[in-house]
Write a structure and sequence with these properties.
250 residues, alpha+beta, Aminopeptidase, 2 domains, 11-stranded mixed beta sheet, 8 helices, 31% helix
Length: 250
C-alpha cells in the first residue's frame, strides 16, 4: 500500500490532472485509480477487509472512471464482509493474485545472475519509464508515471542489460525493513531468457545491503495446474507463498 501511495505522491501534477490519477489512503489500505492504465494494479482497492473500510472505498471508487477492482483475501474476512460483496454485486474476475514473501534469514543467492544489471540514474528516468510502459503495454502517455520514481527517496530502479543496452527494468520500494518489488518488465524479444530472475536477485541483494529483512511481491495466482512463469521463478529463488487475493470487479 505504501508503495502505491508514494507512486501517486511523486507523480507529476500534470499527469495526475490529465490522466485523472487519484489515490485514497484508508487505514492500512488504499484505493487507487488511473483509468488510462489497463492494469488491475493501478485501478484497485487493496489492504481492506472490514465492511466499514470497504464501504468507504466503494463510495470513492464509484466516482472514478475505467476498470475498478477490489482485491480481497477472502480466506481472512468475516462472513459479514462476504455478504457485503454479494450485496454490492461485485463479480469475481480472473484467477486472482498471489502474494509472496522473501525473508532475509533464508537468503541464498549464490547463483550468478545470467544477465548483468545496474541501477538506473536520474538521467535515464524517461528511458526507464518508457520501458516499463512497453513491458506492461501501457500507453506512452504514462511514461512520466514510472519515470517519476527514479531517484526518489525509498525507490530503487534497475536495468537488465544485453551488452550495454537496457532490455529489462524493475523497481523496489523500501519502507523501514520491508520492501515491495514491482515494475518488472522485459522487452518482448528478450523474454524467457532469465532476465526477470536476474532483476529479482539484484533487488534482493540491494535490499539486503540496505537493511531490508522482508521482501514482498505479487503476481498472478497459479490456477488449474497451469504453469505460471512469474510465480515459479519467485518460488525457485526462495519466495514463499503467503496468501491469495481474489479480484472482484465493480
Amino acid at each position: 500500500m505504501k508503495a502505491f501511495v508514494d507512486l501517486y505522491n511523486v507523480s507529476p501534477t500534470t499527469l495526475k490532472s490529465k490522466e485523472h490519477f487519484e489515490c485514497l489512503s484508508i487505514n492500512h489500505g488504499c484505493a487507487i485509480s488511473l483509468p488510462s492504465a489497463p492494469a488491475i494494479g493501478l485501478n484497485r482497492v487493496l489492504g481492506l477487509n472490514s465492511v466499514k473500510d470497504l464501504e468507504e472505498a466503494h463510495g470513492w471508487m464509484n466516482g472514478r472512471a475505467g476498470n475498478r477492482f477490489f482485491q480481497i483475501n477472502i480466506d481472512q474476512v468475516s462472513p459479514r464482509t462476504k455478504d457485503w460483496i454479494l450485496e454490492k454485486g461485485l463479480v469475481e474476475y480472473g484467477v486472482g493474485w498471489a502474494k509472496l514473501i522473501y525473508d532475509a534469514s533464508s537468503a541464498k543467492l549464490s547463483e550468478a545472475n545470467p544477465f548483468l544489471t545496474r541501477p538506473v540514474p536520474v538521467a535515464e528516468a524517461m528511458l526507464f519509464g518508457s520501458m516499463v510502459c512497453k513491458g506492461f503495454d501501457f500507453p506512452s502517455t504514462l511514461t512520466p508515471l514510472w519515470s517519476a520514481i527514479v531517484g526518489k527517496v525509498g525507490w530503487s530502479c534497475f536495468f537488465a542489460l544485453d551488452g550495454d543496452t537496457p532490455v529489462g527494468s524493475a523497481a523496489m520500494y523500501q519502507s523501514g525493513t520491508c520492501a515491495w518489488l514491482g515494475g518488472g518488465t522485459t522487452l518482448p524479444e528478450f523474454r524467457n531468457r532469465g532476465i526477470q530472475k536476474a532483476l529479482i536477485k539484484s533487488r534482493i541483494e540491494h535490499g539486503l545491503g540496505n537493511g531490508v529483512s522482508t521482501f514482498a511481491v505479487e503476481t498472478l495466482a497459479p490456477a488449474g495446474g497451469e504453469s505460471n512463469v512469474s510465480f515459479d521463478n519467485l518460488r525457485k529463488i526462495g519466495f514463499r507463498h503467503a496468501f491469495n487475493r481474489k479480484n472482484f470487479k465493480l
